[in-house]
Amino acid sequence: MKKIILFTALMICPIKYSHAQYKPVEDGSALKFTIKNLGFGVDGTFGGFEGAISFDPQNIDKSNFDVTINASTANTDNSLRDEHLRGENYFDVKNNPRIRLHSTRVALASKTGTYFFTGDLTIKGKTQSITFPFTAAPTTDGFIFKGSFKINRKDFGVGSTSTIADELEVNLSVIVKKA
Questions:
Q1: How far apart are CA 127 and CA 138, in angstroms?
Q2: CA-CA 20 to 30 A from 8: which of 56, 83, 93, 145?
Q3: Residue 45 lies in a domain
Q4: Do 143 and 22 touch, CB atoms closer than 8 A?
Q5: What is the tally of structural domains in the chain?
Q6: Which sign does the torsion angle of CA 82, 85, 88, 93 carry?
Q7: Residue 130 belongs to what domain range?
Q8: Model-level pTM?
């Protein structure tokens, strides 16, 4: 009888050891970048968030991120510049339609709720390892992840000699909800 009760309880109650599955939500999420052009800061955004996220603050080493954005959504509020960015010399969106961020490790950085993302960033078919801190604020049915990092555009073959700086800063604010 005890076995039947235990079996029934396990079937009815959710198992705490399973990983929460989330997906990024376009509405309210933002990927912003800032780069210098002729010494002046140029801001831009990307959209088209897709992917799968397993995130459990109680079991952080089992967490995993695999997300992409649509490279053709590059927007700097200048249509001529945006078309140039979509071209072969920059993001080459015809042959590389998505930019991918995939974790290889997620770790708790401190007791204050800061985490470290370590993983691979793939832009224009070139992959580089990246590590950056981020926060995870719980919402009713998911999280808001916020973080920032710097990359060198030339590491990814984006642009050649140009008036734009090599280094740019990326700021993420991504809302995720249960899949």
A1: 30
A2: 56
A3: yes
A4: yes
A5: 1
A6: negative
A7: 19-178
A8: 0.85
d(CA 146, CA 29): 10
**10 is a domain residue:** no
For residue 13, the model assigns a pLDDT of 42
Classify residue 63: in a domain, yes or no: yes
Residues 6+ apart with CB under 8 A from 55: 19, 20, 22, 63, 65, 106, 136, 143, 176
Decide if 41 is inside a domain: yes
So what's the pLDDT on residue 10?
40
CATH of the domain at 174: 2.40.128.110
What's the token pair of residue 71? 């490279």
Q: Which contacts qualify for 80-83: CB closer than 8 Å, 24 or more apart?
A: 81/42
Reported as a single tens digit per residue, the pLDDT across 12-23 is 444 333 455 999
Distance of CA 18 to the CA centre of its chain: 22
C-alpha distances in angstroms, 178 versus 114, 143, 149, 175? 21, 9, 26, 10
Mean pLDDT by groups of 10 residues along the chain of 179 residues? 43 44 96 90 95 94 96 96 93 97 94 90 97 96 97 92 87 96
